[in-house]
Amino acid sequence: MQVQFLILVFGLNLHAITAFGHGQVTPACMSMTPGHGTNLGSTLEPPYTVTSDASSYTDGQVITVTLQANNTGFKGFLLQARNENGPVGTFTVVGSNAQLLTCGTEGSSVSHTSKDVKSTIVAQWKAPNSNNTDIHFRATFVQNVSLFWVGVQSDSVRFLATNPPNVTVSPPNVTVSTTNATVSTTKVTVSTTNATVSPPNVTVSTTNATVSPPNVTVSTT
Fold first, then answer.
1. For 196, what's the count of Cα atoms within 13 Å in the CB-facing half-sphere?
2. Rounded to an integer, what distance in angstroms lies between the CA atom of residue 8 and that of residue 199?
3. Which of 95, 113, 111, 98 has the alpha carbon at shortest distance from 21?
4. Which helix (H) or strand (E) holds 106?
5. Fewer CB within a 10 Å sphere, N or C end of the chain?
6. Whole-angstrom Cα distance, residue 75 to residue 158?
């Protein structure tokens, strides 16, 4: 009984290692978490980055995505472009270190092909032709069975619609009216002042003077 139990455990571990080594991790499509028994993803700062060569995209655009190790290489990985609903778009890969997986859509994910240590993986992602939204590129990196990082993500890649919906922009209803103002000339009456100019009351009178000749007596001898 004990021997059978050990054989069963050995077989399960061999299956897990084999699946890990070949990168066929479709059971982890949605959670992006490796099935490594009771081991949980690390909460330490990941020594890996996920970057893209574009910060925005349009329908059908192709973007280059790079997985990069800072110091320590990784053995396994799972890469996806994700919106709030899950993986979107399709990838193409170059070289023998990466392969395409079907996570809902064929070619929507990329994983490793061996447990060889890797420092850089480059893939190209093509956006769908419709129903796009903002996305992140996300990757799970595996150093070993007990140490891995889940969902390390790139900066947000914004979607720019090439054919925006028909939007009618009309100016606001603005009524411009002149203020009801009556401009009238001021009624100014210019009249000559009723003024009577008369010479001052000047009384010129002759002085009551009596001029009489002097008393002259003329006598004859």
1. 3
2. 149
3. 113
4. strand 105-112
5. C
6. 30
Q: For residues 140 and 33, is the Cβ–Cβ distance under 8 A?
A: yes
Nearest CA to 119 out of 81, 171, 77 is that of 77
- Quick check: 19 and 12 in contact, CB under 8 A? no
Q: Which residue has the tokens 């956006």?
A: 127
Backbone phi, then psi, for 3, in 5-degree steps? -65, -40
Q: d(Cα 131, Cα 111) in Å, to the nearest integer?
A: 25
For residue 177, give both structure tokens: 């009216």
What is the C-alpha separation between 51 and 66, in angstroms, rounded?
5
Place of tokens 């190209």: 124
pTM of the predicted structure, to 2 decimals: 0.66
Residue 219 phi, psi (nearest 5) = -125, 160
Can you read off the two tokens belonging to residue 120? Answer: 């850089």
Neighbouring residues of 168: CB distance < 8 A, sequence distance ≥ 6: none
User: How many angstroms separate the CA atoms of 34 and 145, rounded?
Assistant: 9
